[in-house]
Amino acid sequence: MSPTPTNDQNAAVRQFAQTLEEDEELFKLGQYSFRPFFTYPPNSPRVFVKVGGVEFKQGEGDMQRIAYEWMRRERERDPTCNIYVPEVFKIFTKGGGLTFIIMELLDKAKPVEHQLRTLDGATCDRNEPIYYRMIADGIHRLSRIPVPQGATPGPFTLGERRIKHILFKDHEAPIVYPTVQDLEDHLNRIVLRMPKYRRTPDQAPRITFERDLTFCYTDFNDENFMIETEADGRPRLYIIDFEHASFLPISFLAHAVYMPQSLNRWEHVTKWVAERFGHSLPQTNVRLMDEVRALWVMSVSKIGLTEAQRQRSTIQDAQDVAGCSQDLVPHSDGNFT
Predict the structure, then answer these.
(1) What are the structural domains of the chain?
(2) Contact status, residue 243 vs residue 56, Cβ threshold 8 Å
(3) Where does the record place the Aminoglycoside phosphotransferase domain (predicted)?
(4) Which candidate, 156, 139, 318, places its Cα nearest to that of 225?
(5) DSSP state of 102
């Protein structure tokens, strides 16, 4: 556990967040809210709440905690860094597998595009590259997070380490991969299912992943990057939404950055990320990974799994369904850094 900063502005709200596990009004909002996130309490918001299935929300919250702590240390090391991640105060599960992430409320920050629209033309032109370079620098700084001991491909979490990434059908891996080799082998089995390689499998190219894992933040929706202007005019960036953050071979980050322009809705973000990383972001696997993605979109989610993997996946799916019909024991909210 990291020492609490002396100027701890979140102390009171953090204490409030610890009481929310027994709050029935919060639980009802989580069950019936139209959107899987909301501010709370409704009439006088103090925290931001995300709610969803235990399988992914626990992983999202744990990865955000890691990112929060790392970025706090980055600001201590480098006074020019003004990049933040909202603090996660508490994660708990109740009521048949509904998981709540209680986090810091950003009441002054606005998504980057919204912030730019509030500025006059000249100020917008001047600030736009400043904001997007900050975003790219934030993604780069997150990629330098040390890999925790025992990390495997996916989020480093007490929950299920299933990857969420644009590569997979419905952006969700069909199984948990114990090793990079398991992940690589699965994708290469899908390569062999491509019509152009079925008759000549010996001539099929191969995906070869890096063996080291990297903290890959790959959701470049510009709503995930929020700007607040401080009293002295200095911009502060918040990076939010860690659902698609995992420890993965860096090719997964490269794929999200360099995927074809026709599919890249966030090119106005990724071009800055590409510039910041330069040659350190390898493109060797990008084309073939995107061919795998394209085939996966048109196929069943379990394409390319071995028989043993299919059986384990079926068992896991059945357990997930069963878990939604009974109360679960709350997860610990210990720090993973």
Answers:
(1) 10-105 (3.30.200), 109-321 (3.90.1200)
(2) yes
(3) 70-249
(4) 139
(5) E
